Amino acid sequence: MALRARFLTALLFLAACGAAAAQEAAPPLVRQLPQDRAEVLLSYAPVVKKVAPAVVNIYAARTVAVRSPIFESPLVRRFLGEDFNFGIPRERIERSLGSGVIVRPEGVVVTNNHVVGKADVIKVVLADRREFDAKVVLADPRTDLAVLRLEAEGERFPAAALAEEDDAEVGDIVLAIGNPFGIGQTVTAGIVSATARTEVGINDYGFFLQTDAAVNPGNSGGPLVALTGHIIGINTAIYTRTGDTSGIGFAIPASMVRTVLRAALDEGEIVRTWLGLAGQPVNAELAQALGLDRPGGVLVGDLYPDGPAAEAGLRTGDVILEVNGEDVLDDRALRFRIATHPPGDKVTLTVLRDGERLEVPVKLSPLPEVPERRITKLTGPHPFQGVTIANLSPKFADELGLDPMRTGVIVLEVDPRSPAGRVGYVRPGDILVNVQNRRINSVADVVVVAKEPWETWLYRIRRGEQLLDCGVFRNGAVECRRSR
Predict the structure, then answer these.
(1) Is there a catalytic annotation at residue 230?
(2) Euclidean distance between CA atoms 389 and 430, whole angstroms
(3) 20 to 30 A Cα–Cα from 18, which one of 4, 56, 317, 369?
(4) Catalytic one among 140, 144, 166, 212?
């Protein structure tokens, strides 16, 4: 009995110690009545009152000509010709609805490019129900952003401020303001669900804030607002299987909005910057091989001669971990962080080289157009008759949505009435690598080869990620196979 008593005493002692430790680690919740009216009336209303007057509804329309579907048939077009048209084309009005936000008192509005598109007429309705026509100052499909200016000489408008830094954190409370489904200005609340989303595939500079604030069709172009009243993003897309919100919305960060706004108001065009390198994301396998404790960063695989990275002393095999102290998780994140800086800016790259972290300053420059594109439509009695080609430069490749490091001669157009157009052995987007066993470096190389007589036309092209060896013969036969 004495032993049992001592055992129970020990258990009670341990339980008391555990309870004391728990109380020390997590003090008990103190419930009390609100001390003043402000604590009772917690509300987002002050933020809404500050920003909502600057949020606008945008109605865009354009007229398109529509032919009967039968005349769009490739077979009919082949026999009647591309210019044949039966009767008068019907006209159809295409309309789009979205949101936007005034960011300058003189009537400068930011919205999504897909809201205004190639609209003939744009009407903007303010929160106070006034209506104004608007003109596009700059539209950039690559970032899906557009800048408008209200046609209201001398008017001053309520404007909202863009956040100075992309410092939103997961868990921050945010508000989305816009015109969902055209029902009128609506405010929804949520949190930042994720930052630096790069695997979304919405535009060429995929790097998004994710939010669970309800965003629906019609919210596009409206602001995502922090509780400071600053715009931290422009709502641009949702993930959905039904067409309605599913709690996953994406916004373009304020840093990219500032870049496009600066280009529209100061430069008149977007001048894109680059590092002049090609790289690949560091996955778990690479991270282990490189001695990193986790995946992340970009492994430099190639450098453009005399490009900003090469001039700064970067080397193949370096791993870029940060830009100005901001993490770089993959190549899309690196591209975004560089794209938000104008030419001439200096950035500091944190680089891992041979196990050592280095800080490398880099002065950014615009994408060069060397060589000149020299767009040329080929003529003459050869298989490339009617094919339009051009020289690739970093700038031109980027405009076409290609890797700026890609070089060579690209096929831009193929006349559908030409031999290549009828048979399809050359397609827009193909890059000529070799013709008649001669390396193709420029349009001039193709022009010279095309002047020579031929019996069999042999050439190599890069189509997507494939290399194809092709032959066109005098009897009209065509053969293509993957290059070994």
Answers:
(1) no
(2) 10
(3) 4
(4) 144
Per-residue pLDDT of the chain (484 residues; tens, 9 = 90+): 444 444 444 444 444 545 444 444 456 656 666 677 766 567 899 999 999 999 999 999 877 655 555 555 554 455 545 555 555 556 666 677 899 999 999 999 999 999 998 888 999 999 999 999 999 999 999 899 999 999 998 899 999 999 988 889 999 999 999 999 888 899 999 999 998 887 666 666 778 999 999 998 899 999 999 999 999 999 998 876 666 667 899 999 999 999 999 999 988 888 999 999 999 999 999 999 988 989 999 999 999 999 999 999 999 999 999 999 999 989 989 999 999 999 999 999 999 999 899 999 999 999 999 999 999 999 988 999 999 999 999 999 999 988 999 989 999 999 999 989 988 899 999 999 999 999 999 999 999 999 988 888 899 999 988 999 999 988 778 888 988 7
Q: Find the catalytic residue in 96, 99, 193, 220.
A: 220
**Considering the entire predicted model, what is its pTM?**
0.80
Q: How far lies 160's CA from each of 83, 102, 163, 374, in Å?
A: 50, 6, 10, 44
Backbone torsions φ then ψ of 397, nearest 5 degrees: -60, -40
Does the annotation mark 144 as catalytic? yes
The domains of the chain are located at 53-150, 173-267, 273-366, 376-482
CATH code linked to domain 53-150? 2.40.10.10
Four-way CATH pick for 273-366: 3.10.20.30, 1.10.357.10, 2.30.42.10, 3.90.550.10: 2.30.42.10
Rg (the chain; Cα; Å): 30
Q: What is 376-482's CATH superfamily?
A: PDZ domain (2.30.42.10)
Active site residue 220: yes
State the Cα–Cα distance between residues 171 and 190, nearest whole angstrom: 9
Catalytic residue among 96, 99, 114, 166: 114
Fold topology of 173-267: Thrombin, subunit H (2.40.10)
